[in-house]
Amino acid sequence: MGSVTLRNIRKSYGPVEVLHGIDLDVADGEFVVLVGPSGCGKSTLLRSLAGLETISAGDISIDDKVINGLEPKNRDIAMVFQNYALYPHMKVRENMAFSLKLNKVPKDEIESKVAKAAEILSLTAMLDRYPKQLSGGQRQRVAMGRAIVRDPKVFLFDEPLSNLDAKLRVQMRSEIKELHQRLGTTIVYVTHDQIEAMTMADKIVVMKDGHVEQIGAPLDLYDTPANLFVAGFIGSPSMNFMSCTAQGGKAVLSNGQVLGAAPAGLGEGQAFTAGVRPEHFVIGSGALDAPVTLVEPTGAEIQFTVDIAGDHVLITTRDRVTARLGDTLNLSVEPGKLHAFDPETGARLGGV
Amino acid sequence: MNPQPRPLYWIGLSIFGLVIATYVLFPIFWLFLASFKTTGELASLPLTFWPVAPTIEAYTALFDTTSQSSQILNWPRLISNSFLVSVSSTLIVLVFGTLAGYAFSRIQFPGRDLILGGLLISRMFQGAALLLPTYRLMNNLGLQDSLLGLTLLYSAFGLPFATWIIASSLREIPFELEESAMMDGASRLQCMVKIVLPLATPALITAAMWHFVGAWSEFAFASILMESSDSKTVTIGLASFVELFTIEFNRVGAAASLVAMPIMLVFFFGQRYFTRGLLAGAVKG
Ligand SMILES: Nc1ncnc2c1ncn2[C@@H]1O[C@H](COP(=O)(O)OP(=O)(O)OP(=O)(O)O)[C@@H](O)[C@H]1O
Ligand SMILES: [Mg+2]
């Protein structure tokens, strides 16, 4: 069992508050990803959960037991650090056995646990090497091995893949996900890479400036972002934003052209920020004429940058559209794919 | 791309180094050789360089407790005194230097870097200027002419630099290693013993060597503080020996060689760590 509950977590460094009351529920066995721009407080939250930082207010519980005052070692949590933090003077075997030894686990049990973890992670051949004799990916796996031999209630990962090259990152991403499916242990994972978050998480927590912006399943965040920030942060390439006014149920651009149907629930004449994902434009069937300013074929799809009412708007299509620079595209927005946000607060407006 | 260093340059530099080394070491080596000669050979002309009939007579004489000279200078006693003072003050410096160095490297407190730098500056004020005040102080404390007093004094003198060396090297050990160990179930003390100290070994050895050599060869303070013949150390012994037995160069040579031995051993075995540790401290801190 390993469910985690955070209630109104606040953290200040001196007079500066960096976490402003975080609430989060993590179910047993869930893979939760904290994502957000640099400096938003992801690491701080994770380290508070680990017990490496003391929180200024709030409650942290594991399995409904408040653990606020507990030392890290008494929390039954394992953490994988960004730079792996392997003990350089110990062999891989000793690195993985360290916590078990400290906890006075019998020798043969240590050996079998280390052997099993090494096998899961394909590290068996490396057990007698020192960390400096390993590649980045192997070090990463040792760090995970050190965590899994303990069989803790919760795993914490703080940007574990950011020191790896792009290809290895993709590989390790699926390895961690497989590991999670195999072990079923609760994982809280920090990253600033929204693709990592989308692909791995059962549940994503989007943070900004010490606040939680939205919590939800990856596709829920993608389909119904709660505000402008989440809308722009989740998804790549990111959502296009245009200023509109609601007129007769339509979203009317500043140049008078109609972008599409306005979401229900907007007042007549209400100004709002319209958000449309690049793949939600339909080319060749609409009232909206937009000149092409850039064409970028990526192979699988073509990206067009067009000018809509003075804004650069990115459109992607899987069709082989032959438009060229200076041509005009005839556009409409897929029904129900036009998001509306309050231009002042950024909050989502209307239904979809 | 670095141009290959020219061989001529290196040959020249090596020869230059050799000449300097010979110039410096020759008298020492001559004295060492003299310790294996008889008094007769030393007095005869022309002077010999290598001992004609090598003998350890001069050494046995040093340890001959029945001889008249050992009434004045008891070499076994001097040597054990020096060992006692050097080894125990080295241990004290290591223990406190490690604890203080750990605090300097891990705890953020106001003025930390200033104080750490100050530790280094304190080394500049050692020496003659401190002789008299120290003498007064030790007298007031009743610690003059006492091996305990000398041990404490050496520890006090050695602690700042040892702390600085250790702190500089501990700073380079990422704190995340300790955090990781704490997550793994280690207490703060276990972190220190199992993670920090093993990684700081070169610095600890450097600090220990540095201090031991300094304490072993310290002369000025020992000579003003240690009055009775039972509490003297080797450096005082050597100085008075030269006064007493100027003519008997073989005995002077034997005593000097003996006193130099521990230092040479320390450098021989610790050299590797010594240079490495100092460099580690030199780059940062
Ligand atoms: N020891 C500290 N003292 C003061 N401020 C700190 C300290 N540690 C972190 N902060 C501040 O807290 C905020 C959150 O930092 P945190 O490391 O949690 O960000 P993060 O979301 O993990 O960012 P990144 O993606 O860059 O790792 C930052 O504004 C940072 O400047
Ligand atoms: Mg971080």
Could you characterize what this model shows?
In chain A, 40% of the residues are buried. Chain A has two domains: 4-233, Rossmann fold, CATH 3.40.50.300; 240-349, Beta Barrel (OB fold (Dihydrolipoamide Acetyltransferase, E2P)). The longest helix of chain A is centred in the middle third of the chain and has 18 residues, at 166-183. The two termini of chain A are 38 Å apart. Chain A has eight helices and 20 strands. Chain A is α+β, with helices and mostly antiparallel strands and 352 residues long. In chain A, 24% of the residues lie in helices and 36% in strands. Chain A has a six-stranded mixed beta sheet with strand order 6-7-8-3-9-10, with helices on both faces. In chain A, strands 13-12-11-14-19-20 form a six-stranded antiparallel beta sheet. Chain B has 285 residues and is mainly alpha-helical. Chain B is built from 13 helices and no strands. The longest helix of chain B is centred in the last third of the chain and has 35 residues, at 249-283. Chain B is globular and about 75 Å long. Magnesium ion binds next to α1 of chain A. The site of adenosine-5'-triphosphate (ATP) has 11 residues of chain A, from α1.
Give structural attributes.
heterodimer, A: 352 residues, alpha+beta, Rossmann fold, OB fold (Dihydrolipoamide Acetyltransferase, E2P), 2 domains, six-stranded mixed sheet, six-stranded antiparallel sheet, B: 285 residues, mainly alpha, MetI-like fold, 13 helices, 75% helix, globular, binds adenosine-5'-triphosphate, binds magnesium ion
